[in-house]
Specification:
heterodimer; A: Alpha-Beta Plaits; 5 helices; about 45% helix; rod-shaped; B: mainly alpha; globular
Amino acid sequence: MNQRIHVGVFRDEASLLSAIAESQERGVRIVDAYSPYPIHGIDARLGIRRSRLTIVCFLGCLTGLAVGLGFQYWSSAVSWPVNVGGKPFDSLPAFVPVGFELTVLCGGLSTAFVLLMRSRLWPGKSSRAVEGVTDDCFALAIARKDASLPAAELPALLERHGAVEVRLEGGS
Amino acid sequence: MNAPHAPAYEPSPRLLRGLLLTAVAGGIVFLCGTLIAPERVWSGYLMGFTYFVGLALAGPLFLSVLYLCNARWGLPLLRVPEAMTAVLPIAFVLGLVLITGTHALYEWSHEQVVAQDPLLRHKAPWLNVFGFSLRLVAYFAIWIWLGRRLARRSTVLQAPAEKRRGDIGSSALFMAALAFTFSLASVDWIQSLDPHWFSTMFALRTLSGAGCAGLALCTILLVALRRAGPLRGVVTRDVMDDLGKILLALSLLWAYVWYCEYMIIWYSDIPEETGYYLLRHRGVWGSLVPVNLAVNFAVPFLALMLRAWRRNGVALTRIAALILVGHALDLYVMIAPPILGAEPFLGLWEIGPVAGALALFTWALLRALSRSPLVPAQATPSA
């Protein structure tokens, strides 16, 4: 079914939240909400499930730590032992900084890449997101659930809550 | 926030009496100890005192962090750190008592020892009893003055913009002053137990430890007040989640600083610096080091990663309590070795003063907490 999505652009958090509240009250389908920063409690309000990204991050961190410590142990105690200031070859204190850095690096990069892949954002892909939502704008994309609501109601709803711009997208 | 005017908290008289009795018992043990085993009881006293001061200073520290970050989620919680700030004058009295114990604790306070030791002679302009006492009074004067200023902020009624400017000003001033004075104080009180040793990371280690323990205590109190009723609806699961995250961050900070200090000294292996760890990393002391790292860092770090545990009052309280025990162990490994020597020992002379100081702190804290409504009026949505 070809559905038309109305996107309203707001200037502040409060307008966005009040528009969300009315949409939910009137049974309007909320496609997505955009904000330049995380809004407290908006996940619960939109009924978004808990992100599984933390699991990716944890596994990335574990991998980084294992690789960091393992490689240092292998290189300095097994493959090519070098006496540094009379310290034991397998000196854990010396391995910690690199292990720590690799933990952070692998955790951060794997999280970022998986996030981009899951959001289907890759180089060359044009984004249909509203301009400014990564800067100073808030946006709400809504659509009708069924034909019971007049189509003209949607832009009116957005404007009532202070939308400075309402656009029509012919998405799915 | 459905509890706009939470009633004032009233601690049960039995609890207060129990705490006061423990504090008095600790005081009696301490007094007996000064006659029977002065060195050991004074090291116990120093542990109790530094633990006490650290918890009291964590109050204004937490307040200033909340104000500086404009953390609205923390506004309904302000009373607990404010009550911790109110305990500072008692810490000052304990500090005055500490001055009388310098001879039992500090090598540098003995003139004959200093006269024969070129390094101590060199440090004498700073490490002497008069300077020690004068600085102690100055630290507390600054902390009490700036802390009170900060703790009053939640009752100041002003236009939002002016109020915010005042909050930030008081917080920034306290932060800057604390960084400077706490560094000097931890050198005076703890680092100078090993007067030949020096470390630039030391102050940060004590500060992060105290901040972590202070937040752990805040967390325990807030969760208990939620369970008891007055803060139900204010300390939500989201707030507990946030407290757990900050606790995790502070535990991580403590471990980071601990490791930074250790690694540099371990790597360079200069006799003057390594002596500190040689004493603490051998024999039974040595086996306490991994326990210290586990209790203060590894276990809380892994446990607080679990969202379900951060949002569960019982689990969060247990982890915070573990950190409080860990902080005592951390102070023990910092303070006791130069006095006890090669083997650790834990007896009445160590436990008595520490238990007494902690009971006194909790007693004073709960009394301060009961003085005003638990939720600042300005934190309610209507204000």
